[in-house]
Amino acid sequence: MEIKRNQKYFSSKGINVILIVGLVICLVGAVLLFQHNTRPFGLVIMLVGSAVAVYGSGAKSGEAEIDNQIHGIVKDLPEQAQIKHEVYERHFLKIINPVLLKGFDYSAKDLLCKKGPDHKYRTQAYNAAQLYFTREKIYIYGRHISLVDDSEGANHEISNVIAYENVQRAYVDPTTVKVAGRDVKVFYFVIELKDGTEALRISVDYGADVDKACDDINHVTEKMTVFAIERAADKAAKRAFLREQDAKKAAANA
Q1: By the 8 A CB rule, do 128 and 24 touch?
Q2: Of 21, 29, 230, 243, which sees the most CB atoms within 10 A?
Q3: What average pLDDT score do residues 114-119 get?
Q4: In this structure, which long-range contacts are made by residues 145-153, counting pairs with CB atoms below 8 Å and at least 24 apart in sequence?
Q5: Rounded distance, CA 130 to CA 105, Å?
């Protein structure tokens, strides 16, 4: 993680002056290059300007570099989730696909946020969580990633295992945060339990896929909860039958 360069990305204001100066020098050099008497000098000027521009562009991370750093960490999350919970593809339910949730985190008190030329807001932290579904439980594993702090406290795991019968619902909770005096809409993906607590709350890049994930989770929760109740009732009936048989044998031997 390029901590120092990332810090400069969020702390820098306005345009990159060093980069602009380098480009201006290059432009001057280009003009001189087309003059016969100043061509050698123009080449030197262009080289100097290029060096200044490269230095200026490398002083801080750019949007693409921020995104690449995040991708480098998140891309292995599905495999890490399987290893963490020892649950693999052969255990997965066929009626629902695994769900990957991810998005920039806006919960920090000292929020650092910047809007890129792609009109996307980026903050100093990122959340990602992989959800797997088996016949009995939902397995959650994720990461909270700080782009400006490499301490263990700022970078930690998100991990939980919940039984379907304990799940109340999955839903999207929209909220608004102030960023440089401007309202920014933030969406949280929430899995609420029947006891009122939350098994998961994570900020996400909102889209139709997030709504579909909620619908799919709610559907499979309802279906597998009924299945769990029926299975528990069947086990109870079998235990009662065995106890009755044991009682009859004991009475016959008395």
Answers
A1: no
A2: 29
A3: 87
A4: 145/70, 145/73, 147/1, 147/3, 147/6, 147/10, 147/66, 147/69, 147/70, 148/3, 148/6, 148/7, 148/10, 148/112, 148/124, 149/3, 149/124, 150/1, 150/3
A5: 16
